[in-house]
Amino acid sequence: MFSLLAAADIELRMVNVGGGFPAHYRNDVPAIDGYARAVMAAITRHFGNDLPEIIVEPGRSLVGDAGVIQSEVVLIAEKGSADGRRWVYLDVGKFNGLAETMDESIKYRITTPGRAGASGPVVLAGPTCDSADILYERTEYRLPLGLEVGDKVEILSTGAYTASYASVGFNGFSPIQTYCI
Known about the structure:
Shape: elongated
């Protein structure tokens, strides 16, 4: 593109390499410097020493790990399924900021502070009566067997986009509160 436009006497001075740099969810991710080296090698190969201004959109890789959603168990149901999974309903769901769990796209790390011991498979769901408010049904999540209504559940690496995804008043639920520490 730069070469074609230069031939038409149009000089571009900037290249935006975009984003897509991942946050740390359930899988390990390469360090950001690995991405930077690959991008710079490609740009140097193309431009030599005449480098344009470079713009990067690091997005979630910068802020994802900075956020934690603290939720609470509002219901635990055993629905008699053959796989023995308990349904654990939290006070936060897809419509309270966890929209990226749609199709189980982003798989957040989940902890249960103060609860340890043997664990079992669960389906995680949000608090609304909307049938889409199921966070994880196909992806295996395990939570302590001793988990009870009222226990805290922390959803980690939720610093990117969750607050802006939260619906205002959906099904009567307030959007999640945001605190900056």
